[in-house]
Amino acid sequence: MVVVLADGPAEDLYGMFINKVRRERPPEMLEEVRGLTKWVPPPVKMTRSFVEENINRSRKRMDVAALDMLQFHWWDYANPGYLDALKHITDLKEEGKIKTVALTNFDTERLQIILENGIPIVSNQVQHSIVDMRPQKKMAELCELTGVKLITYGTVMGGLLSEKFLDTNINIPFAGPPLNTPSLQKYKRMIDAWGGWSLFQALLQTLKKVSLKHGVPISTVAVRYILNQTSVAGSMVGVRLGLSEHIRDTNAILSLLLDEEDMGSITEASQRGRNLMEVIGDCGDEYRA
């Protein structure tokens, strides 16, 4: 199965892609392609007409009769309009314009409220890594009870969970790779909140031992560990076409089997750091502070 993530201008690219598949591939190939898009509405009144207008725009741009998955995000919990929006989205799902409804960066409290309102959520996309284990606190318990799955991002922390940053001291100028992207800087702040660079180096050493045992990179071990966690259904790994596509390493995730000793040593190294639920808050709170 080919899963394509799209939002904003990327919806137009998906529309071009799916039409190329229609023209050049056998009809059955269409059954193997899924397009996921995201909607982050402004804080206006969530009327049926406003919601439907935006959904129809995505359907037109992606050139599909029904969105395979709509991932919904809402910034301000003090504004309860997210429930109105999701109720309209559910109606549109029942009318055949959306196949599945999902969330991005919702916390446990709001996810429970949404589910209690009868909205059929299939997944919640959250930040989750060996450093950031917050989803395995309250969120995982609710997911187990309700069947909602977690889709994770930040699982290799923008590349920090890799050999590239092993045995480096970024506090010394030119002593290691520069943190020269917003992603690297963002996840470095998570490391600081968790326990700092020295403790992170100890974690990388643990991951390196496991990676050598299985003949795979640190990043592959890092993703497999999270995929082994309760309620995690999938993990997104970023790529830069032509620069760092990670195709071989990503394929290796599917066949990697971490044994009890591997899982235990990684868990122990992860738990040396602070509980980020206490430092930052629940899933998505880092965007709402």
From TrEMBL:
Pfam families recorded = Aldo_ket_red
- Domain (NADP-dependent oxidoreductase): give its ranges: 7-269
This chain belongs to the protein called NADP-dependent oxidoreductase domain-containing protein
Task: State the species of origin.
Answer: Triticum turgidum subsp. durum (Durum wheat)
